[in-house]
Amino acid sequence: MKVIEHNKVAEYLRLSREDGDKMESDSIKNQRDLVRDYLAKHPDLRHVAEYVDDGYSGTNFERPGFQKMMKDIQAGKINCIIVKDLSRFGRNYIEVGKYLERLFPSIGVRLISILDQYDSAKENSDADRIIIPFKNLINDAYCRDLSMKVRSQLDVKRKSGKFIGSFTCYGYAKDPKDHNRLVVDPPAAEIVRFIYDRKLSGYNSQHIVDKLNEMGTLPPSEYKLSCGYRYFSGFRSGANPKWTVPTVNTILTNEMYTGTMVQGYYQKVSYKVNQFRSIPKDEWIRVPGTHEAIISRESFEKVQRLMAIDTRTSPTQDAVYMFSGLVRCGDCGQNMIRRREKRGDKVYVYLRCTTYKNRYGCSSHLINLEKLEACVLAAIRTQIALLLEAESILSQIDRIPENQTGVKVVDNQIKDSEAQIARYKNLKVQAYMDLLDNVIAKEEYTIINNRFTQKMEAAQRMRQDLIAKRKRMLANEVHLKPWLDSFRKYASVQKLDRTILVELIDRICVYSKNRIEIHFVHEDEIQEMMLLSGLAVEQEVSR
Predict the structure, then answer these.
(1) Cα atoms in the Cβ-side hemisphere of radius 13 Å centred on 162
(2) How far apart are CA 40 and CA 57, in angstroms?
């Protein structure tokens, strides 16, 4: 490339957070001083412009200053670029090479890197041709290494329960004394509680949205702006933003409100690309008890059940139907839906199988709604009475005797599991002897041995679970668990509502109008408690 006689020079300066402890030496001022000193010593270089990207990574070239400089190059305003060193120009090995080796030579643009002693207008030695790409590669590797270190440090902070986000979720604020800690924001927290209370009362999300907008409550994004935060969500719905169903649902499913720090929803695809990928929910980083809870864990879990089973409401209704998502066909497992029939002046409401209604088979399993309500109410009252009686019995026992029926059952189960373990051990030994006697081939032995090993390990796990269960039974812990409070507070229930059903009932299976099977939440705990107290467990109701 020949030397350009009339050099129209632009100095390009860049600094980003990735420079770490080099920020002082790489500051924009220091870069400018170095470039201006170089220009003063080279009068043939005519300075015409300066472009600055302060706070932008060198891993990509989507920087405002750089992009403006390239437009001016295309317009013929500039034909020479000067930088402190090649790392200021960029840290992406492939992209920097593309500019240095292909683009700039083809359009007659000169690049000068002062500290690298590189000038594209001069004849480069073989050493320069090797060293310059190598330096670019080192700059790229430096950025990749720094990215990995930063990601590791952020993960350490997340796992220790420190908040590292730019903005807190609605209802919380950063502690002024420690920005890695969350504190409750009282006004917003009250709105969060209002949303949860409405949901637990049976109202759908659209009703909650309408109520919040009717009250004139600012949506989260506008609330943050009103508090002075430089918050930008990426979009605004008109000049007067309102609450929306997705916003309410996001709040209703945010575990942060229980006092658990939840982070790590997304991960950057590459240090070179400003794109992110979603992380599976079971891989999110959760640390309980890091901040004050706005919503109790119990209320949060109830709402999650509601979110899972709630179905579409009638356009004329703002609350979810009481049995919605809870009643299923006992044969095909599909939800039961309502059907109204008018006979004279009276309207009768029935439930029938969805599969049958859509003509995909099964049978109607038709059941009168009033009868269903009466049966479920009776079953709840009976179950609560049994639990309270069981609690009374167990509270009078300091320690369950060794010959207690429940303990004896578990003891027999432990013996059975131990017998299975011994049996599979013997079968493994026998298979090995068959291998030595050439009765079976090595491949066949491997398959048999692996199968017996898996079964033996399963039996060992079962034995450990049973031992833990026996210990718990002897310690008489089952009747002291907080789940009993959910049942105890409805001891005098006279009428069903959505809240009671969701809190106490897991599902209701209808096999016929005379056979209904009711499954309560905490079913295993209930059965264990009934077994300990010697009382029967009633799940099936026949009328």
Answers:
(1) 10
(2) 29
pLDDT of 137 reads 62
How many CA atoms within 13 Å lie on the side-chain side of 198? 22
In Å, how far are 55, 62, 73, 339, 515 from 67, measured between CA atoms?
A: 15, 7, 10, 65, 74
The pTM score is 0.54
Report residue 373 as tokens.
């309500």
Indicate the pairing of strand 7-15 with strand 45-54. parallel
Of 156, 190, 197, 178, the C-alpha closest to 291 is 178
Measured CA to CA, the distance from residue 81 to residue 7 in angstroms comes to 9
pLDDT value for 543:
45
Q: Please state whether beta strands 266-270 and 327-329 pair in parallel, antiparallel, or not at all (unpaired).
A: unpaired
The torsion of the CA quartet 406, 408, 409, 415, rounded to 10 degrees, works out to 150
Residue with tokens 């207690």: 404
DSSP-derived pairing of the beta strands 273-278 and 266-270? antiparallel
Reduced to 3 states, what is the DSSP secondary structure of residue 190? helix
Percent of the chain with pLDDT over 90: 21
HEC letters along 412-470: HHHHHHHHHHHHHHHHHHHHHHHHHCCCCCHHHHHHHHHHHHHHHHHHHHHHHHHHHHH
Neighbours of 471 (CB within 10 A): 11
82 pLDDT higher than 80: yes
Cα torsion through 401, 403, 409, 410, rounded to 10: 50
Q: Which of 57, 26, 282 is nearest to 150 (CA)?
A: 57
Give the whole-angstrom CA distance, residue 202 versus residue 453: 50
How far is residue 350's CA from residue 362's CA, in Å, rounded to a whole number? Answer: 17
Q: 307-326, pLDDT tens digit by residue? A: 877 655 555 565 667 888 88
CB-based contacts of 233: which residues, under 8 Å, 6+ apart?
A: 221
Over residues 71-89, mean pLDDT: 90
- Token look-up 């003063």 returns 40
CA separation, residue 535 to residues 206, 262, 265, 391, 524 (Å): 45, 42, 47, 11, 14
